[in-house]
Amino acid sequence: MHSHILSRTEAIGRRTYSIWKVYSAFRTFPVRSRFLPASYFQSVGLGALDGTFYRSFTDFRGGGGGYEGGKGQVAPVVSLALGPGLAKVSKETNEDGLTGPQNDGRLAVFWRTFNSKATKPNQLFESYLQLPAPRLRYLSQEQVYGLLSKMSVTQKGDESAMLQYLTVIDDMKTGRVPIPRYHWNTAISFVAKCYRHLTDHDLQSGLFLWKEMEKSAGVLADITTFNILFHLATNSNMAHLPLMILKEMKRRTIPMDRFSYVNLIIYYGKQGDGRGIRHTYREFIQTGEVVDIVVLNAIMTALIDAGEPQAAEDVLTHLIQSPTKSRFKRSMEKKNSRRLHKNVRNLRWILAQQGFDPNMDLRLAPLAPDLVSFAIFIDYHARETADFGRILSLLNDLSECGINSEVSVLQSLFKGFALHGSSRYTPWTFQRLNAVFDAFINGGYCINRDATLWCLRAHVVLAGKKKGKEVWEIVKAKWIEQGGSGSEVSEVEHRLSRMKKDF
């Protein structure tokens, strides 16, 4: 942990309080849905996550602490209690390996669903719910972990997927099945990434899972856990909480990795702290880590959030003009090496113009902008500047770089039409909206909730509620054809009924 980061942490008051003293009151915080009805929880059997938050971490010192199970391993007191028939872990998943009533057709359906490569996570979960209770007695420990792994492959922001994953975790706790750190981290990550804007309750749910992981299961957090918690805290309304998490990492002597630095850069951007962005980047360089496009995307995002969009645009312009965006060929190794050297020198100059240290020792991967690089600025101009011409230029550069567009780009365009389409003499016209909508429906894009909501808002703003309903019928048919979630379709339908022309 580096001095400037620690000094900023101490600046919040030089207090020695634990993170958890923020939540010193005795409460329980079950993970609950914002939109799904209470009947959903009853149907899936999602039990309340009992317990209270930590009051302090003073008994837990970096690594071993007072836990059973050593450094992050499952405590030996947590034993597998699925019946003697499953003591030997089966490596093949088939109906012959089951214990219990073999003539129950629900078991055959579950294993066919489990073994099918075409099965979606929500389909697998539905077949899992149909198993006779207690459900986990039909699975070996290895198969339970496989079930969780299959259910974790889902789109970001899928609340239903989060609840389904936590249902299986809840069953594992009830059945005393050891939960490895990886699956605890995944559960916390679901809470951290499920919502774009976290409420205090969402934050408490994620922190409670951390408490349960360490306090109840005896599984110590690692750097991945803290990176997820830092991301969770950064998206909350508690500006000091991320720095308190860094302080806890220091107390446990857990060093920061490249993801920690990227998260910290994003955090300082949200705080409007350009100096913090530059200091963190300098510390990142000094660790010897490679600077790749992920790091530069984080810097550009942070600079925009910090109110320095021109500095971010300069970095993108350099990346677009960089000769390293072409593929390296063995026969041109020397020529490309000279180009890369020139590229490093130019990038160092660009960064120096924006206040970064020009003498820093850059270790660069071959740099070229990716889809995220362009999506950052397309979304920024759609939200803030309404500069349609600049967006067209970015889309042209995206095409010239050989990068295929994704639904996130169209979502940003729909957002621009919704926000600026009602202005006089606006370039965000209904004709252009129709062109974007045609691509959305016929371009092979994967329809999701957020893109659909912005699409409908744009049509309601530019053409009225009736047109919005007509568009919804088209999108809904396509979405259902793609296997869209029923709960998300219902949510969009409900929100459409409340949309107004004056957005």
Automatic annotation (TrEMBL):
Keywords: Repeat
Presence of keyword Repeat: yes
Function: Regulates mitochondrial small subunit maturation by controlling 15S rRNA 5'-end processing. Localizes to the 5' precursor of the 15S rRNA in a position that is subsequently occupied by mS47 in the mature yeast mtSSU. Uses structure and sequence-specific RNA recognition, binding to a single-stranded region of the precursor and specifically recognizing bases -6 to -1. The exchange of Ccm1 for mS47 is coupled to the irreversible removal of precursor rRNA that is accompanied by conformational changes of the mitoribosomal proteins uS5m and mS26.
Subunit and partners: Binds to mitochondrial small subunit 15S rRNA.
Assigned protein family: Belongs to the CCM1 family.
Name this protein carries in UniProt: Pentatricopeptide repeat protein
Species this protein is from: Arthrobotrys musiformis
